[in-house]
Amino acid sequence: MPGRQKSLEIQPVLIQNIHWGLEKSLLLSAAVELDLFTSIHQGNETVEKVARAQKLPLRSTRMMLDALVGMGLLAKVRGMYRLEPEAKAFLVKGENDYMGSFLLFNEGMAQSWFKLSDAVKNGKPPANGSDLAGKKEFFKDLVKRIFPISYSSSLILSKKIGIGKSLKGQKILDVGCGSAAWSIGLALTDPTSQVVALDYPEVLEVTKNFVQRFRLQKQYEFVGADYHQHQSATSSFDIVLLGHVCHLEGEANTRKLFKKYYDALKPGGKLIVADFIPNDLRTGDELPLLFALNMLLFSENGDVFTEKEYKRWLNFAGFKKVSHLLAQYPVSLMVATK
Q1: Which long-range contacts (CB under 8 A, 24 or more apart) does 230-233 make?
Q2: Which H or E run contains 75?
Q3: pTM for the full model?
Q4: How far apart are CA 31 and CA 248, in angstroms?
Q5: 180 within 8 A of 204, measured Cβ to Cβ
Q6: At what angle do helices 147-161 and 136-145 cross, to 10 degrees?
Q7: If residue 133 lies in a helix (H) or strand (E), which one and from where to where?
Q8: In angstroms, how far is the first alpha carbon of the chain from the final one?
Q9: pLDDT tens, the chain, 338 aa long
Q10: Can you tell me the distance from the alpha carbon of 260 to that of 109, in angstroms, rounded to the nearest whole number?
């Protein structure tokens, strides 16, 4: 029968994998919380050794490790487990690119995702979503969690635009700086640079801790203010950083920020936008398109924007040269020169 033949040829693998996505996310979060990847990296390569080292029951440990093998994060040969390259690079505690804090389950954010259908029907975030996004305490926690990805991307940015080589002694404005992840990479690459870190006073408590961790206090000035109200002197900066700012602002506010910081830049200065940027047709990549829904849930006007949209808005603000660079996935960079 044609219908039966078709059902055998087309299997629901894609649908099943998507449906089990929440369970995979929770499994990864639990494995990070239990520090299983670090334990294996330290030489505990069997179920028995991991269970003993982490003080876990043997049966449940075996179940979790095997599931991580199925997900592609671990390999298993003759009962011995080892980290796959991605796990070794990003899931071992103490390493520079460790993403563990970002991957831990956040119940507040998950609760808003459970209300996605309501948000789509209403065209606005659920009440708890908008309240959560507006709380300074939320941002204080968030910026710490996302530091590793942004910091790694800032090092890539430094190399691609010539910080410390063709660009030295730069005066940098880090707008909505959060943990200062974006400017720290530039400041480390060029010790002669100076950074003005701009954010809410409450968030700057976090900023100062990260700056001290990297021993960069002499290169930083801290300005506690709402960047919407704060006015910078005209033609006073070589670089302005908008790291993960635009997706929260929406189109209208983003275009205002482009004009505002065009005026704040010296001739030849650069405005750098770091964000999740889908292709111009909005058919990929998957993660930026999913992140747009995250903005629906946690902001009034937020969205993700394409390279074409950014170029048009930046040109309209006065920038003559605009380029699109890739950083650490899923972050992209728009570099606009005055």
Answers
A1: 230/198, 232/173, 232/260, 232/261, 232/264, 233/264
A2: strand 74-77
A3: 0.90
A4: 30
A5: no
A6: 60
A7: helix 127-134
A8: 66
A9: 455 555 678 889 999 999 999 999 999 999 999 999 999 999 999 999 999 999 999 999 999 999 999 999 999 999 999 999 999 999 999 887 899 988 988 887 888 899 999 999 999 988 754 444 456 777 788 888 889 889 999 999 999 999 999 999 999 999 999 999 999 999 999 999 999 999 999 999 999 999 999 999 999 999 999 999 999 999 999 999 999 999 999 999 999 999 999 999 999 999 999 999 999 999 999 999 999 999 999 888 999 999 999 999 999 999 999 999 999 999 999 999 99
A10: 32
Question: DSSP assignment, residue 163?
Answer: B
One-letter amino acid at 239 equals I
Q: CA 254, CA 247: separation in Å to the nearest integer?
A: 8
Contact 90, 149 (CB under 8 A): no
Nearest partner of 274 among 165, 188, 155, judged by Cα: 155
User: 95 — alpha (psi -120 to 50), left (phi > 0) or beta?
Assistant: beta
* Per-residue tokens: 100: 């563990």
Residues, the chain, total?
338
CA of 121: how far to CAs of 66, 72, 109, 124, 337, in Å? 40, 36, 19, 8, 40
- Which position has the token pair 């100062």? 208
Tokens matching residue 131? 């309240």
